[in-house]
Predict the 3D structure of the following.
Amino acid sequence: MIKSVLAGVFSLFISISIFADECCRDTFILAYENYIRQKRELPSDLFAIEPKIITDKILIDEETLVNPKLGQPISGKLFETLCRFEFINQWEFYKKNSFVPYSYDYEKFVKWRMEEIKLFYLGETKLSENYRSFLILFIEGKEDEFFMSRELYLINAKGNKCQSITRISQYFNVEGNSHHFYSEKTDKQYFIQKDTILSSDMIDLSQPEGYTEKASCIKFHYDEQGMLKID
């Protein structure tokens, strides 16, 4: 049953886009949430982390996601706060599945998810003088298991308020069926999201015939408030 659930999760990630306050239909994934009406506060722990500025570009390949050079582990109040973001704990999907533990009780569900996932602070990237942008790595599952998920979140914060969360890149694998996408940053502060579907027959990720890369038509940027806008 658990495998069926995970297969459903895989299907979800390759077919659904998550938006708030605006919507765009496309064949590629662009998962994000703008906190326009909700006032989501972030604990001071996030801003107290010693800055590790990532200045070149936001681009994470599948090898880096599968075998990441881990940054600073996130724990304590910051970990709990981030795990309570429905965007991160994926409550909207899990609550609809009766096979998932505590899908009927959000508080118990959050505690369960806190045991299932790990979060790491990778660094901070400079997108604007008006807000700060943090890169958070999400890890669920082990490399040798039939299920594995690695996601990179970009969190824009103004003051202590979360303005938006974007799933910038992801590597997802269920029983050999893999999917990878990532976002490239242009020199004009725009992002282009690219999508790669990895074949279930693929063993060596270095073999180009093992995957098909699609030209992405999703282009986006962030406004002065740190909200994601689709171009």
Observations:
- The chain has seven helices and eleven strands.
